[in-house]
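Appendix B, example 12.
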Amino acid sequence: MLGLTIRWSLEGAPEGVEDELASFVAETSHARFTGMSGLRWKTWRTVRGEWFEGSYVFATSEAREEFQRTFTEGAAESPGSRMIGSSPILIEACDVVAVAEGWDGFEASPRC
């Protein structure tokens, strides 16, 4: 499977940025990516005070390449960059080796 990781450092970011990012994901970003053509799924992850990232899995290499190209071109102006105060430190294509769905199943949610 065709993955993409976009990660921002939270070192030096404004106090409370993690909560601001979580609200943005819940109120805006989740809806943008739900049902997005070419995207299998996206996960937002954070470690408070360290980093925030989007982890994507795409259906085709063309979809991943187009998203990566477009995002990279505007990365400095992206909502995450504006909230954090800096551009991503990592924009990296990768391969997802496997996915397992546990007994309790998959849950799509704008806020966990």
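The chain has three helices and four strands. The chain has a mean pLDDT of 96.
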